[in-house]
Amino acid sequence: MPGKGKPKEKLTKEQERLLNIYYKGADFADHLWIEGSIEHEQDNEHDNFILIFNQLNDFEKSDKEILVVHINSFGGDGNFGRDIYTILQEFKKPIVGVVEFACASAATTILMACDLRILKPYSLFLIHQTKHNIRAHEEYRYPYAKFKKTRRAVYGYQKNYENVLQFYKDHTNGSIDQIKKYVRSETYMPYDEIINLGFANHIFDKRKIVKQNRKGKVMEITFPTFSKSINKLISSEYLSGIKTLKIFVNINYENPIPTYFNMFKFINLMFEIPVDIIFINGSVLINGPLLMTLFAKKSYITKYSRVSISVDSEFSEQHPGENISDTVQNLKIKQAMVKDILQSKTKLPKKITDDLFTKHYDFTAKEIIKYGLADGYYTFSKSKKTNVSSRKRSRKSSKKRSKKRSKKRSRKRSRKTSRSVDPSD
């Protein structure tokens, strides 16, 4: 969430070098994705730690100069986060961490292992004290519980709290008191504080991306295919020979509505996709996909479509560990992100954007274009293939036209010459 002040970025020469490599494009780095809940799997053969460990071993053998760690997670198991932090610290190549949308709780521990930390424009960042020490001793609430065990749990919680404060102090520019403020409040941090305190070093700027002159064809895919392959689409190698990516948005019961959690990640990744993106909106356009289409180069809608805008449940739920005041504050931050997009990218009246989280709105295709939710109607392109006979007819007709034109020109010339001749001669 943007803050009140202007962030002061202070990069070292090494961080500037890594930033230049990052902005060259996804093909100049290896990529590790940390998404969803951060936790171990019960099946040791598919344990997340083992999978990440094996990936890092493969990355060390590659010829890529840096590793980019993409993070989109609200956290999970704090111990697992520290495990990932440990193996990233052992990684030999420079690491660039990128917050694609959410970076909270245990996910921030992983970000601290990166040499350069980049924050995407629409992101949420939160640090807090883990509460697993107290939860592990919940059975001590019962009458037969001993006070000694309860006291031991509280003592462990306090030690863990001090450890968390010291960890962030060692990896940022903030003091214990500054860090304690956000650890206790459990609210999303503003961008200026994230940068000024050193939790991140740079806010992503799409203007710094090295543009590539691409010549190629149009690739047409559906929205579910796009959402599943979004992690690969930032690579120009994957989009070799493609100049334009045309996405047909089809939302129905078989293709459910993507959550805002994924949608903001998609928006942030769209800044890095090295081709022009065009959205074709069919039957119904709802919530998250609507926000995403506003960041495309062009967005069109079919004539008889409609848009349905309403609040999503993610903007009203209370996360574990949040008290009521924290929930209200975090809710306002998330709503402000959506309002900022709609007010800057569309012509929707302020009354609608203000009532968006309490009322339901439906728009016709004409209203969609009027309010700037789409650039215009989509015109269906007819097949370019024609029959051979029709081609011959067109050629014959063109020849006839050219003959008629030449005859008219010759007649005009003859008339002019006859007029210019002197009758006395």
Helix-strand blueprint:
Blueprint: H1 13-24, E1 29-35, H2 48-61, E2 66-73, H3 78-89, E3 95-104, H4 106-111, E4 116-119, E5 124-126, H5 132-135, H6 147-171, H7 176-185, H8 191-196, E6 202-203, E7 217-222, H9 223-228, H10 230-233, E8 242-249, H11 260-270, E9 276-281, E10 284-286, H12 287-293, E11 298-301, E12 306-309, H13 324-345, H14 350-354, E13 361-364, H15 365-370, E14 376-377, H16 388-420
Parallel strand pairs: 1-2, 2-3, 3-4, 3-5, 4-6, 7-8, 8-9, 9-11, 10-12, 11-14
Antiparallel strand pairs: 12-13
Helix pairs in contact: 2-3, 6-7, 11-12
Summarize the entry for a quick read.
With 425 residues, this protein is of the alpha/beta class. 43% of the residues lie in helices and 17% in strands.
How would you portray this structure in words?
The protein is of the alpha/beta class and 425 residues long. It is built from 16 helices and 14 strands. It has helices at residues 13-24, 48-61, 78-89, 106-111, 132-135, 147-171, 176-185, 191-196, 223-228, 230-233, 260-270, 287-293, 324-345, 350-354, 365-370, 388-420, and strands at residues 29-35, 66-73, 95-104, 116-119, 124-126, 202-203, 217-222, 242-249, 276-281, 284-286, 298-301, 306-309, 361-364, 376-377. The strands form three sheets. Strands 1, 2, 3, 4, 5 and 6 form a six-stranded parallel beta sheet that branches. Strands 7-8-9-11-14 form a five-stranded parallel beta sheet. Strands 10-12-13 form a three-stranded mixed beta sheet. Helix 11 (260-270) runs parallel beside helix 12 (287-293). It is globular and about 105 Å long. It starts with 12 loop residues before the first helix and ends in a 5-residue tail after the last helix.
